[in-house]
Design a protein that fits this description.
The protein has about 180 residues and is an all-alpha fold. It has one domain. Helix content is about 90%, strand content about 0%. The protein contains 3 helices and no strands. The longest helix is centred in the N-terminal third of the chain and has 85 residues. It is rod-shaped, with a radius of gyration of 40 Å. It starts with 9 loop residues before the first helix and ends with a helix. The relative contact order is 0.16.
Length: about 180
């Protein structure tokens, strides 16, 4: 049994209330769907973030291994050059020359070894600085990925209609329906 409502007849009042109910139900369904999509976006972002963290760790590990290998190669090169210099000095001493010439040849060998060691050290220092820049780049990539994921999550949750907007839309729809049903 319908009672007259706001100047509408019983049938028109029923249509008006039905329209309000459908509008409200539709708004709540849209809100629930948007919330489900946002929750799904969040879960997906968690998975992507774990993947990004693993990629970061793998890349950083590879860079560290490369640095370690480069340092080991440099140490081997310096050691080999030291052996080569000691052998050359031994040959100079064994040549049975004496005097200033021998001392100059020995000093020259020692100087060349020092220059070589300095060169290797400068190369290693440069490589280490490049390593640090590469790690900073990896950190920056990771942070960009995180920011992109967070932005997507924020957008998804911001797309959820508020209860206030649902009620306002329901009221506006109800007013529109009321004006259409109101007898002239």
């Amino acid at each position: 049994m319908c009672v007259p409502l706001l100047g509408l007849g019983a049938a028109q009042g029923g249509l008006f209330l039905s329209s309000l109910g459908l509008s409200l139900a539709s708004g709540i369904a849209q809100r629930n769907a948007a919330r489900a999509a946002a929750d799904q976006q969040y879960q997906s972002a968690l998975i992507q973030n774990r993947s990004a963290e693993q990629a970061f760790a793998n890349q950083q590990e590879a860079l560290a291994a490369q640095l370690k290998e480069t340092r080991a190669n440099a140490a081997e090169d310096k050691f080999a050059k030291t052996i080569e210099t000691l052998q050359a000095q031994g040959r100079i001493r064994a040549s049975e020359q004496a005097g200033l010439t021998v001392q100059m040849l020995l000093q020259d060998q020692e100087g060349q070894l020092g220059i070589y060691r300095d060169s290797v050290d400068r190369t290693l220092s440069s490589y280490f600085r490049q390593y640090q820049r590469n790690v900073e780049g990896l950190v920056s990539q990771r942070e960009n990925r995180r920011n992109d994921l967070q932005s997507g999550i924020n957008q998804a949750y911001n797309a959820i209609p508020s209860l206030g907007s649902i009620l306002l839309n329901t009221a506006a729809s109800g007013l529109n329906t009321y004006t259409q049903l109101l007898p002239a």
